[in-house]
Amino acid sequence: MCTAKQTRKTKETNITVELCLDGGSVEVSTGIGFFDHMLTAFAVHGGFGLKLHAEGDLFVDCHHTVEDTGIVLGKAFAEALGDKSGIARYGSFYIPMDEALAFTSLDVSGRPYLVFHGEFEQERVGDFDSCMTEEFLRAFAVNSGITLHTSVLYGANAHHEIEAVFKSLGHALQQAVTKRDGTLSTKGVL
């Protein structure tokens, strides 16, 4: 089983993540309802077991909680993947959500990078600032060592657009961590 447990405690947040790439229960609590919904959708669509608890300075805004969650979840993925041998490495997936369409393509390469294209007409969805979608993805990509390209191709409802992003990320990661023989690299290591 590919599992990991990561924690991060600062003056702004206190976050614990337990991750199982092979599946399991999903329990998410961040204090930000829409973000909980997105992380749950990500885990369910990726087929991951995820127990995530975050407490943050939400009296300021959601920024620290969302970004730090990306950091901790990214570190958990890096730990669960180990040396990354025996995985398919690449994944790509489109998700339609009503009028919205999002696409994610990624490489579990050990070389972190984010390319994000998306603009949201609505500034907020519940207590979640729409602009935090990119901040979460950046923190996740950098700390997991994943090259991540995500685009909201079109849409009008920020809820649908952001949900399509999180679901497409889950599906693309599920493809990338699928078991295979050897290391998918001409170098022999990732």
Automatic annotation (TrEMBL):
This protein's record includes keyword Zinc: no
GO cellular component: cytoplasm
Catalytic function, reaction form: D-erythro-1-(imidazol-4-yl)glycerol 3-phosphate = 3-(imidazol-4-yl)-2-oxopropyl phosphate + H2O
Listed EC numbers: 4.2.1.19
PROSITE patterns per the UniProt record, alphabetical: IGP_DEHYDRATASE_1 (PS00954), IGP_DEHYDRATASE_2 (PS00955)
Pathway: Amino-acid biosynthesis; L-histidine biosynthesis; L-histidine from 5-phospho-alpha-D-ribose 1-diphosphate: step 6/9
UniProt subcellular location: Cytoplasm
Record keywords, A-Z: Amino-acid biosynthesis, Cytoplasm, Histidine biosynthesis, Lyase
NCBIfam families (alphabetical): PRK00951.2-1, PRK00951.2-4
Protein's name according to its UniProt entry: Imidazoleglycerol-phosphate dehydratase
Species for this entry: Caproicibacterium amylolyticum
Taxonomic lineage from the root: Bacteria, Bacillati, Bacillota, Clostridia, Eubacteriales
